[in-house]
Write a structure and sequence with these properties.
single chain; 118 residues; mainly alpha; rod-shaped
Length: 118
């Protein structure tokens, strides 16, 4: 296997790992809902325990669930845009020490197509 093929193989592996770490928006929504059910039942139970009023406990639970699901989803999506603690883009490991020619650009384009970017 040539050095270029080894480098391309490493890039594919790195890209696959990076994609596996990214969460899909629907996964973020599912996590938000499942956590909110648990947390809202806890809140509703505590409000009922302290007040003895079921209607108040249910109202607080519903309001709290809706608002916190929204905030959790926004928080998760915001963190998708923060690069701290995430691996670098797979093409960032390519050493570029000269002006790229058309052959280089074709190789990059082909590689990006293989990775699913184009």
């Amino acid at each position: 296997m040539s050095q270029q093929e080894q480098r391309d193989s490493r890039l594919r592996t790195t890209e696959q790992r990076e994609q596996a770490r990214r969460e899909h928006k629907l996964r973020s929504i599912a996590k938000a809902i499942s956590w909110r059910v648990i947390a809202s039942l806890t809140t509703t139970g505590l409000v009922y325990l302290f007040t003895g009023r079921l209607a108040l406990a249910a109202g607080v639970g519903v309001l709290e669930a809706g608002l916190k699901m929204l905030f959790y989803y926004l928080h998760e999506r915001a963190w998708q845009h923060i690069s701290w603690g995430q691996p670098a883009h797979p093409l960032s490991i390519l050493p570029v020490t000269r002006e790229l020619d058309s052959e280089d650009m074709e190789r990059i384009k082909k590689h990006l197509e293989e990775l699913g970017y184009l």
